[in-house]
Amino acid sequence: MKNGFNSVAGVDSSTLEFLINPQFVMEEREEEEIRKRKEKKNFSILKEKSAVISITDSIPDFFKPKYKRIHGKKTPIVLKRIRF
């Protein structure tokens, strides 16, 4: 026969696990917090890199250096005057 009494009724699994093995649960939570912080840090670094890439992509060709060939070598063209 089944015992109809349930001593942990209404308790979720994480709380039950904490009651059974608190040290393991605390270590798991700490590891999860550290993992979340690292992911957040990596995401912010990627966000900054993508912002830099998008800025450099938006620079028009006018400001990129121009080259011409002199005696078979590429040399940059010096812009003497720019009018806006």
Structural write-up:
- The mean pLDDT is 68.
- Helices cover 52% and strands 10% of the residues.
- It has one domain.
- The chain is mainly α and 84 residues long.
- It contains 2 helices and 2 strands; from the N terminus they run H-H-E-E.
- The longest helix is centred in the middle third of the chain and has 36 residues.
Q: What is the topology?
A:
Elements: H1 13-20, H2 22-57, E1 67-70, E2 73-76
Antiparallel strand pairs: 1-2
Helix pairs in contact: 1-2
Task: Please describe the structure with a list of short key phrases separated by commas or semicolons.
two-stranded antiparallel sheet; 52% helix; 84 residues; mainly alpha; 2 helices; 10% strand
What is the number of beta strands? 2
The total tally of domains equals: 1
Q: What order do the strands of the largest sheet run in, or round the barrel if closed? A: 1-2
Average pLDDT, all residues: 68
Distance between the termini: 92 Å
Largest sheet: 2 strands, antiparallel
Q: Helix count, per DSSP?
A: 2
* Proportion of residues in helical segments: 40-55%
Structural class label: mainly alpha
Short note summarizing the structure:
The protein has 84 residues and is mostly helical. The chain contains two helices and two strands; from the N terminus they run H-H-E-E. It has one domain (13-76).
